[in-house]
Structure formats: C-alpha cells, structure tokens
Amino acid sequence: MPITFADPVVVDTIELRTIRLPLIEPFETSFGRLTDRRTLIVRVTGDGAAGWGEAAALDTPLYTAETIETERHVIQAFLGPALLGRRLAGLDDVAAAFAPVRGHYMAKAGLELAVADLATRRAGHPLAALLGGTRNRVEVGVSLGLQPTAMHLVDAVARHVDLGYRRIKLKIKPGRDIDLVTAVRARFPDTLLSVDANAAYTLADADHLRRLDDFGLLMIEQPLDPDDLIDHAALQRTLRTPLCLDESISRLRHAEQALALGSCRIVNMKVGRVGGYASALAIHALCRAHGVQVWCGGMLETGIGRAHNLAIASLPGFTLPGDISASVRYYQRDVLTTPICLSPDGTIPVPDGPGIGVDVDLDYLEARTESVDRLVREGAPLAHA
Ligand code: NPG
Predict the structure, then answer these.
(1) CATH 3.30.390.10 for the 4-123+360-376 domain, yes or no
(2) CA 48 / ligand 1 centre spacing (Å)
C-alpha cells in the first residue's frame, strides 16, 4: 500500500554531516574491527519543518559496496538535486525521484528517512503510525562481536542476558564458530541464540556449517556471499537451522528471488540496506504473504538511525527480536537529548512523539562533527535553513 503524507512536502535544504562517535568497546565481525563509528547524519528542511535521517554505510566497502564517501558523493551529485524542490506527496514520490540511480541504497535511505521524519513531524504524528506500526514497544536482542576468547564471549553473553536482551547474536567466521557456539550453549542451554557470518563461508563449507544444526539456533545469518542466492538455497536444503539473509537483500526483487529459490526462511530488514521505507514496506509485505519471519537489523546507528529502526520494527511482520540495542550498548553518549534505553523486560518503547519522536542534542552533534556539506534548492526561502 502506498504511504501518503498528511500534506505534500517540498525539500529546500539538505545538510550532510559526517560525525564520529567513539565506541565503548571495539566491535569485531568477519569483515573487520570497528573502534569508532563514523556515520553520515542527514537533515532536510522544507515547509517550515526539519527531518533527520542517517545514511548507514561504514568508512569501508567491506559490508556492502557503499561507504560514507560514496554516500556523500551520490547525494550531492545525483540524489539531492533530484529531490530538492520536488513535490513529495508520499514515500513513493521519493523512491520515484531516486529510481534512475542504480544501487546506492544507503544513500537513498538516508535522504528518504529524513523526508519521512520531516513529513510526520510537520503533521504532528509519529512516523511509526504512518508506516503502519502496530506495537508501542518492540522486542530486542543484541549482537556480540568476536571476542578474544570463548570465555570473554560467554561473559559478554551473561552480561547481556542479565540486562534483559531477548536474543543473543554471535558473530562467527571460519575457525571461530563451533567452539564459540559450544561454549555459549553449554552455559545458556535455553537462550534464543543466532549466529551471523557476514558472508565469510562458501558452499564448500556446507558439511562444517551443518554441525551448527546441533545447537538449536534460531538462525544462521548470511553464511555465503551476498550474490549467491542459489548457493544459499542449496545450503538451506541440507540444514535444519533456518538461514536468514541480510547482505543479499537490497531490494524487493532480491527478496522475491530468494523466497522463490528457498535461499532463506528468515529475512533481516535494514531500512538502509534496502534503500528506505518504501522498499522495506514492500519486502515486509512480501514476507508476510509468504509466512517468512522478518526482524530489524542494525548497523551501530546513532540514536537517529535507532529511532528509525524502532519505527519500522513496530510493524506486524517483525516477529523476532531486532538488533536494536540501547544507546549505551555502543556509545558513552548518544546524539540524542534522551538516549534509547532498554526496559528490563527486553523491549524498547517506540517513541510516540511527532516523526521519529526523539530530539537531537545539537551541541553534542556539533562537537562530534568532522565535516558538513549543504545543498540548497534554487529559489528556496532562506528562512528555515
Ligand atoms: O546492534 O546495531 C547493532 C549492530 C548489529 O551486528 C550488527 N550489525 O552484520 O548485521 C551486521 C552488523 C553490522 C554492523 C553490519 C555494522 C554493518 C555495519
């Protein structure tokens, strides 16, 4: 169903802010180790209102092909000019403005999220309601990076189970998989547990991956290359444990093909990875129609991206706990005036204020800013820059 704004909006200005937040502890996956999170915060203004988005790419093209620099380039050279001054009656108009540009999903999403926030703040209602959200709090899990030893990992799991997280996701890679899962399962026989390989294996590892069937895992996330839908289908046929796809699904077509091939039984949804809400809603509808479970992934977003994740995760097809942890999981201080907090029952409330329902701490944002780029619509009133 197309999502229409209460009133059409026209974007006059786009601000792209590259910020850097130090992580409380390094986050290591099969593709690398992060000690700081640099990210691109997007702010749009128009019709007397402002909206915030986050373009989620990393510094490096190691998760998907995009980087912060490609996002900045594509927004400045192509997406920004296509958006500025255009009458936007709903999410599909944003998608239509971006359609000629191939790929660059996170760049598109960064802008689309900001427009959606602007339109709903202006209308005075929550973004989650516009998207069709049906719950006011969402169940959440936590993703734990690779640790120096299995004992460190077991300790980290214990800490996060105690905090109330309802699902624990372990990062794995070849050589650091069965031993980690064995150690964690021995101590936590009943905890909802999943593993995420970030595409570190090939189909030649199928026999090895089959050993994971012994641990009652909720899912194995993205074991193979993002382009290998056929190999994922072959692997899924030999496993009892459901496969979940993340990096492989950047748009509806990928999801349709993955479901047709049997490449996965669960889909990780990241609004950034799929190019924004319009695409996310289409994939969500497809999965619901096929009885495929969806959950909200995360990319160590700041509170701005996290608030957007809470909005999408409030939709009915999101039936498994998301990777939407509290701000303090990663950041000593978030860019919000009030950080995102975990309730002891392992849920996070969906903000119910206008738009994404959170307020940005402008002074702290400024303090963490490395660079700012501005795009202005020709003939735009200077009033609300
Ligand atoms: O809690 O936000 C979070 C992180 C969850 O593990 C997580 N994200 O592969 O899904 C992933 C991973 C990731 C992190 C991906 C950063 C890309 C960038």
Answers:
(1) yes
(2) 35
